[in-house]
Design goal:
With 203 residues, the protein is α+β, with helices and mostly antiparallel strands. It contains four helices and six strands. The chain is 37% helix and 15% strand. A hairpin with an 8-residue loop joins strand 2 and strand 3. Helix 1 packs antiparallel against helix 2.
C-alpha cells in the first residue's frame, strides 16, 4: 500500500463519525415528509463530496509542487536528452550522437567526443542524420558517401552559418561496422578555427 493511501486513512476515519451523526438527522427528516427527505439527501451528498474532496486534496499534497520539486533544467542543459544527463558530456561515442549535438574540439576520427551546449564555444555540429533499415544490405562505400553528401546539401542551416568558415565532414559505416548494426550516415558542419561557434547552426 502506498504511503499516500496510508496517510489518507486517518482522514477517512475522521469522516466516519460525521456520517454516523447524520443518520439520526435523516431519520427525523424522513418522518417529517418527502420535501425534507430531499433536503437531507442533498445535505448528505454535499457532505460526501466534501469528504471526497478533503481525502483527494490530502492525498494530492504528497505530489511535489513546481516550487518544491526538482529545479527545471538550466539553459545550459536543455539541449541534452534527459537520459544522457546535463551538458557538457565527455566520452560520447559517435553512435550515441544525436541530431543537433554540438562538439567541443571536434575530431571526426576520434572514438569519443565532448558534447556541449550549442550556446558555448564549439567547433562542430551534427546537422544531418540519415538511417538505413536494419534489414538493408551493405550498399557499398560510394553510395554511402553520396548519401552523406546529399544529407549535407539538404541540411537546413540558419543564416548565422554564413558567419563562420565551415566545411562538411561525412561519417558513414564501413562494411565491418555495418555488420555490427551501424546504419547511420552523418553530416557535420565543422570549422578549423577552433571552438568559435557559439550558437546552433540549425533552426
Amino acid at each position: 500500500m502506498s504511503a499516500l493511501s496510508q496517510r489518507a486513512r486517518p482522514l477517512a476515519r475522521r469522516a466516519r463519525p460525521l456520517a454516523r451523526r447524520a443518520r439520526p438527522l435523516v431519520r427525523r427528516i424522513r418522518r417529517q415528509g418527502p420535501k425534507r427527505l430531499g433536503a437531507a439527501a442533498a445535505v448528505l451528498v454535499a457532505m460526501g463530496l466534501l469528504v471526497w474532496w478533503a481525502v483527494a486534496a490530502f492525498a494530492g499534497s504528497g505530489q511535489p509542487s513546481p516550487e518544491s520539486g526538482s529545479p527545471a533544467p538550466a539553459a545550459s542543459s536543455v539541449s541534452a536528452p534527459a537520459s544522457r544527463g546535463a551538458l557538457p558530456l565527455e566520452g560520447v561515442s559517435p553512435l550515441d550522437f544525436q541530431l543537433r549535438d554540438c562538439f567541443k574540439d571536434f575530431d571526426p576520427d576520434a572514438q569519443q567526443s565532448t558534447v556541449v551546449n550549442c550556446a558555448t564555444g564549439h567547433s562542430a555540429q551534427l546537422v544531418a542524420v540519415e538511417k538505413y533499415g536494419a534489414d538493408d544490405s551493405y550498399p557499398g562505400r560510394e553510395p554511402l558517401k553520396q548519401k552523406a553528401r546529399d544529407a549535407c546539401k539538404a541540411a537546413p542551416l540558419t543564416d548565422k552559418a554564413g558567419d563562420y568558415d565551415l566545411s562538411y565532414k561525412l561519417a558513414y559505416p564501413s562494411s565491418r561496422s555495418w555488420g555490427m548494426g551501424d546504419r547511420r550516415v552523418d553530416c557535420y558542419a565543422v570549422t578549423t578555427a577552433g571552438n568559435v561557434i557559439k550558437e546552433s547552426l540549425l533552426p
